[in-house]
Design goal:
Layout (H helix, E strand, L loop, with lengths): L2 H7 L7 H26 L12 E5 L6 H12 L5 H5 L22 E5 L4 H16 L2 H10 L3 H14 L6 H14 L6 H7 L36 H8 L8 E6 L2 E5 L2 H18 L1
Antiparallel strand pairs: 1-2, 3-4
């Protein structure tokens, strides 16, 4: 073998330009397969956006009766009429004196409602709110000073809520109630008759005052057996902190003009003016 042949066999093979391009391309493929693919696999999926919960509110005005609250709850939640009334028969934390009747403790306020709200949960929220608002020191100590239980105070406040023409009149109406109770006089409140007859009117007849009902405060002395509506805090404060006065009678002669007096003769004159205003208006 010649020296020239031996020298050629000892040289390292050299890549052509085409060979280098193939090698580089293969390396890039391997990098992509070994590095970039795992990165794609490890990337967190985009979060799924939860659908927004539909919410709305229910307003319970001061002075609404339980029947009005039940109807509003049924309508707001889109359930059959009577559902809220049925839900109110159990599971509500009420004073023992209420005997399971939530009248007076469905606290007037604006309540949040959503698709998960049920009649029972909403009524329970109202009763819980009443317990907090009526359980303040101002109300509990005020009730103690007047000599009435909390339940009796709510009854008085419910009458104040129904009878007072303006918030400013609430204290005086409460004083009339206290004065009459102290004297053993019948309260003679039209609002209690209206509750017994399931109506709201300014016109009370002699026949109305003779109905046989524990809510007939013309024929019976003392407080009616239950609240006649659901009072707010102002009425409750008036019930426990009535201003001093000797008033025994009052009548709203016209809107914004309620007259309080201790004189029966003066009361008759005021009532006559009220009747004349009603007759003229009609």
């Amino acid at each position: 073998m010649s020296q020239h042949s031996t020298a050629r066999r000892g040289k390292r093979p050299r890549l052509t330009r085409r060979g280098r391009l193939v090698l580089i391309t293969g390396a890039l493929v391997l990098i992509a397969a070994g590095v970039l693919v795992p990165l794609l696999l490890l990337r967190e999926p985009a979060p799924v956006k939860e659908p927004e919960k539909k919410t709305w509110t229910l307003l319970v005005p001061e002075g609404w009766r339980a029947t009005q609250v039940y109807a509003a709850v049924d309508k707001s939640l889109g359930v059959p009429p009577g559902t809220a009334r049925a839900a109110a028969t159990a599971g509500l934390t009420l004073p023992a004196a209420a005997r399971g009747n939530p009248e007076g403790f469905l606290f007037p306020a604006t309540y949040p409602v959503d698709e998960t709200t049920t009649p029972k949960s909403l009524l329970r929220y109202m009763v819980t709110t009443a317990g907090k608002r009526f359980g303040t020191d101002r109300i509990t100590e005020g009730a103690r000073r007047t000599g009435f239980s909390l339940y009796e105070t709510v009854i008085i406040a419910s009458i104040v809520q129904a009878e007072a023409d303006t918030p400013e009149d609430m204290g005086k109406v409460a004083r009339v109630i206290h004065n009459r109770l102290a004297r053993g006089m019948p309260l003679q409140m039209d609002s209690t008759l209206n509750y017994a007859l399931d109506r709201s009117t300014l016109d009370t007849t002699h026949a109305d005052t003779r109905i046989d009902s524990p809510y007939n405060t013309y024929a019976r002395t003392g407080l009616p057996p239950t609240p006649i509506d659901n009072p707010g805090e102002e009425a409750m404060h008036a019930a426990v902190e009535p201003p001093p006065g000797d008033w025994l009678y009052f009548v709203t002669v016209q809107p914004g003009d309620t007259r309080f007096t201790s004189s029966y003769t003066e009361q008759l004159r005021n009532v006559a003016e009220f009747n004349e205003n009603r007759r003229t208006a009609s």
